[in-house]
Amino acid sequence: MISESDCRVYEIALPGTVKAFVHMGEDSFYSIYVNSLLSPEERKKAIRHELRHIARDDFSNGKTIREAESD
Fold it and tell me: How far apart are CA 31 and CA 37, in angstroms?
């Protein structure tokens, strides 16, 4: 289970094609960047999507980005 102590969410203006992305720092702390131009509901959905990547350990499970996104 991912908690707020495991990650921080930042709302920033991103290109329209990018809803959100997650970055894992060297200290294994996650930062989720969500497009501030999205509606509140779309931001929540994008954050949930990124949290699933964290929960599935998509950073070190050997999957390609394409494979991780197709799950």
Answer: 18
